[in-house]
Fold these 2 entries.
Entry 1:
Amino acid sequence: MQTILIQLDTDNQASIFDRVVAIDSGVAQIFSCAAVTPETVTSLVHGAIFTRGPADLKHTAIFIGGSSAAAGEALQKKVLKAFFGPLRVSVMMDSNGCNTTAAAAIATARKHMPLTSVPATVLGATGPVGLRAAELLAAEGAHVTLVSRTQERAKAAAETIRERVPQAIVVAGAAADAQENEALCQGAEVVVAAGAAGACLLSQGALQRLSGLKLAIDLNAVPPLGLADVSANDKGVTHHGVLCYGALGVGGLKMKVHRQCVASLFEASDRVLDTQAIYEVARRTAGITT
Amino acid sequence: MQTILIQLDTDNQASIFDRVVAIDSGVAQIFSCAAVTPETVTSLVHGAIFTRGPADLKHTAIFIGGSSAAAGEALQKKVLKAFFGPLRVSVMMDSNGCNTTAAAAIATARKHMPLTSVPATVLGATGPVGLRAAELLAAEGAHVTLVSRTQERAKAAAETIRERVPQAIVVAGAAADAQENEALCQGAEVVVAAGAAGACLLSQGALQRLSGLKLAIDLNAVPPLGLADVSANDKGVTHHGVLCYGALGVGGLKMKVHRQCVASLFEASDRVLDTQAIYEVARRTAGITT
Amino acid sequence: MQTILIQLDTDNQASIFDRVVAIDSGVAQIFSCAAVTPETVTSLVHGAIFTRGPADLKHTAIFIGGSSAAAGEALQKKVLKAFFGPLRVSVMMDSNGCNTTAAAAIATARKHMPLTSVPATVLGATGPVGLRAAELLAAEGAHVTLVSRTQERAKAAAETIRERVPQAIVVAGAAADAQENEALCQGAEVVVAAGAAGACLLSQGALQRLSGLKLAIDLNAVPPLGLADVSANDKGVTHHGVLCYGALGVGGLKMKVHRQCVASLFEASDRVLDTQAIYEVARRTAGITT
């Protein structure tokens, strides 16, 4: 029986990126659906679960994607609601690569150092990737400072993380420019930049000025970069005593995690690959055993 | 040369159900087209018939689906018109599963008993499945009472059947509620319920009250069921001396018929799998040889 | 690693013709995108180039199609702009079959005779196929008379050809009817008709009246034909001393060229199969070695 991945994409064109990765993960058939909405998704899910028998449903799975993580989460809720008892298939949500990117970034950090009680700052933390990076850092026990342009959005994001990770230690901070961002990175051992493309979050020389900083990860691949001191290709390079990773430096692990996750959907019919589950795959893929 | 099934779906999202079944029928490639209209279908059909040579056209076929049987029939007409002599491919129409479901239901009945001159009542007979179930019963020689909520719609459906099956013996009846439905089932040896989801057509105890009834089939899988005495999972179970089938009890044969039909499209380039042809497949699949 | 062809189609339904040919060219996976616009194409291209590594990008390619050659050319420009250095994939443009049809027609002519300095007239030369046929004749060194219904459009087309083929010898002519077309064919050794479906460009007996004419190709397959003396099935048949090809007579080579071109996309990651490159494939496919 052939493996079938049903791509439910919230954009008007189903992501080519996700389709190529699906094929490279060994999926035999990819069924792409574009412009999927919570209103239209239920009959698509029923089509997936009412054809093959329960014992064969592990050969069918659902991938939720698109450029909006919020739209993807809304879709995921409806997908999970459409299942009936054993009539269910595994589901992965990775709109805009938010989960695989955040998971690869934090697994990269975790590979270099334990994160328990480590002070860590996430810049651009209210976007889809930043929010998930902060969540994963908090779940690893880091003491997270979550920075956004407004205190209101930062607080809301911190609250979301506390709901998902009850033991989370998170404080919210607002920063209007690179200087204010830098102030909120003082004392951090880990800094992750996940701002919008083209937003410079820490200016040149910041790595030197931030004493105590051990690891800096910039997830922005489009110049101007998020951390002026880190280049997109940096992959464990040391600048001024700080281990640096750029977006492309994290990208190899991200791609592996994405492929591993898709492949693992077909091991059972009840996998739900959300942020935490994808992070578990990233940890294994990165060779983290502790 | 690979087999290609071209799915022409009248809905905004091409049915996942039909795509999965196509793959499980052994089709190598499925090309899905959504929101297909009679206005746009001709160039799609030309794309199918003008590529491979006439001798190879049996490796390409068309499946017409979607939630509306009327839209599917309109599409089928245009598809057949778009062919030129030997430049044609096989076609199957099964919008909303109307043909495979009706064919599986009546083949299930036929397997248990000859239907010639047998009094049979179809409830909810003006919907896509009910109309086709009544047509197939009439074609088997049953004396069909076709029941709808209004006499007008019932008469129109009976007329449609007489056009398709000239020798049909069909009478139209109107029933406003379960009690009136039950009155129209008096004397029937076979009752098929094909009403809308959630409409109770015969109330509890009806099977006991209907003397002479031998076989009852309820095609509604969503509670409340169409026949209160029959459960969705019933598969040849006897209740009060009546052999009973629920929607899931018929479902296994329906799925087999669907797959067999898709596979048979590729045996020649001129198959047209409509109600009667799909019923022939259902008879063979059910092992009916007489 | 599987070959993936990404079909970017400018119509609301992605061409079935192009999808079938892709499969018959040996492509493992075809990803079809409909209603693609220059505004939405960049992220689709990024999805294609940011997944597989540069060394593997030759296993992915892009096919641009749809019913409008102008829309296809606009898309091609944006596709080529979206590449970054080695992050690119091979691209073929064949909206409405314009390039493969024109290439097959002129390769057919070239197979029979050298074209250098040969007087040649293209009728209906401002349509997508006619313009490209005229361009390819000019590139072969023929002295081309390019005919349209208005002098203005004919001149613009001649100018376009001079931009693409600097050494081109092209004159523009206007003809309102078959008689005026015939006057512009006087002295031509080659006539190619590429008018709109149903437009008769040369009336019955023209082949006899045109002294010096050696080869006539009519690319219109829908009656009434473009050249009344040539039938759609003619394939190197001689009428009144003139070698004749109809649309179906050229069609076999066109299909082979289309399949060869698609297959050749996967030989490298930097092929751009436009009019001239597709003609090179047509020459090789037709066995022209000089």
Entry 2:
Amino acid sequence: MTHQIAVIEGDGIGQEVIPAAIEVLESLDLDLEFVDGEAGDAVKADTGEALPQETYDLAADADATLFGAAGETAADVILPLRDAVDSFVNIRPAKAYPGVDAVRPETDLVFLRENTEGVYSGHEDDLSDDLSTLTRVVTTSASEKLAAFACDYVEDSDDHDGFSVVHKANVMRKTDGRFRDGVVGVADERGVETDEVLMDAFATHVCLDPEQFDVVVCPNLAGDVLSDLAAGLVGGLGLLPSANIGDDNALFEPVHGTAPDIAGEGIANPTATILSAAMLLDHLGYSEESQRVETAVESVLAEGPRTGDLGGNADTDEMTAAIVDRL
Amino acid sequence: MTHQIAVIEGDGIGQEVIPAAIEVLESLDLDLEFVDGEAGDAVKADTGEALPQETYDLAADADATLFGAAGETAADVILPLRDAVDSFVNIRPAKAYPGVDAVRPETDLVFLRENTEGVYSGHEDDLSDDLSTLTRVVTTSASEKLAAFACDYVEDSDDHDGFSVVHKANVMRKTDGRFRDGVVGVADERGVETDEVLMDAFATHVCLDPEQFDVVVCPNLAGDVLSDLAAGLVGGLGLLPSANIGDDNALFEPVHGTAPDIAGEGIANPTATILSAAMLLDHLGYSEESQRVETAVESVLAEGPRTGDLGGNADTDEMTAAIVDRL
Ligand SMILES: CC(C)[C@H](C(=O)O)[C@@H](O)C(=O)O
Ligand SMILES: CC(C)[C@H](C(=O)O)[C@@H](O)C(=O)O
């Protein structure tokens, strides 16, 4: 069966790292069909829309989407795209790799971020000249759906025993209280172990001792900020892939942005996008190939050639070719 | 003129670190009068209230308040106490000290956290069996007041040239947009330099290179989480003081909690509370004495005796006595 993959490069280094990941995918000789779509600042400048309806539809209809990055229009592209694929969870692994300078080389975390609500609900109002409000939304149904996914995630793997639930229910008593109760309730029923950590305490403790955490289940904004914190601990955003998973569809993207300072030079680190492609493979059932890509990436990170952000002097093509070589 | 200081030990190690800080303050022979108030888990167990009205009034009427920590009831104590002193800004320095093991020894930051609104507004509703909402509130007036304080703060000091404004206005467009516009608007008028950083990007970059930041102005929850992150970078919560400043009043507290694992043993690190007392002195106009306390603390951190959390084997009394000795 042919899998149709929507490919959206977007802006900046998106146009360099996505082709690198496609090169890796193509070298595996699988039954994948790639269909290009446009989104981002450049498209907006041309057409007035950062995410044209046809790109939205392309992502909604494809078996999976690989997205690069968007500039100023990032939120106008990525939030609707997450909606296009009906994503309820954003998986963000943050792992330090041998060969990469990391503040905390012991870091090996997976964030499971709620992907539909919280402060991302989109309900804001200007109530007066002085006052604006945002309605933060938390539902038991979304919390339980995330929890069920988290339980499957730890049960399907030999590496994980349970998960941490991060929240700020001491202040957001009803909303994060509902989140916590929903998540912990499902885990208890399923017999999956959990512990609770306040969002602020997590920020301290993950710096002091990242090994005390493993799988981390969070509300939307907490997942955004704390996974970016973990990116800092493992040596930067150039390494972190992510998967936005829906029931019948999914979207894969590097956690980094468009890197305008180096865009166009062909020197961007393709790791995060190639690892996102590995997550895509796993999602489509190609788990053996996914593992091969990850292993090849790890070996190139450890031995080179590496891009400049990793202290090497390879360009994107050379690093990508080395990864393809080791597949 | 006698300054009246409300002293609220609270629970756990609050009952050990507050007496340590009072010992330091008393050794300076200033015209300070200390009046004790009760708050926290133990008081709640006794009286049903974590913060009795008379303690609230004591803090509201005193020239300044020194607070230790509260356990389960932390939010029920600290949020109303911030209100009692009409605090609009929470000052949280996060500085790595020679002699203390730090993930990032270059860290030297000051967070100026908005202290009244954001998700701390307290408006939450259960709208159905499935759905709760929280109304996040941002006003131009609070944002501008914080900004004016931040401008004074950098202008009054030789160490700071401007400040960073942290927000998530790409998602919270109206509320954090209002915050950003209010803060940047005042700074522009005052000729104070600012740069803007998204909250998630700040979390990454402060780990990778804390020296690129100095004074950091944030909404309430961002300040909570990012200052705790900085605590992780400088070696833990045992070091971080804070000041909740109002127009005519103020409240000083260590950033750490009650540390139930070591409470009652007399081995808690008094640094955060003694540095909070130094901030209190500065606030009351005793800036020379404040500086002396800070210098004495720094010298003891560097040379010992140090408490167990810092790798030493001194108890709270020994470390405090050493600080008093060096005043
Ligand atoms: C661009 C922005 C809207 C987005 C988010 O906040 O989710 C980004 O930070 C991310 O984490 O993918
Ligand atoms: C205890 C809690 C309500 C409080 C906060 O969130 O402000 C604490 O984390 C702090 O930072 O002082």
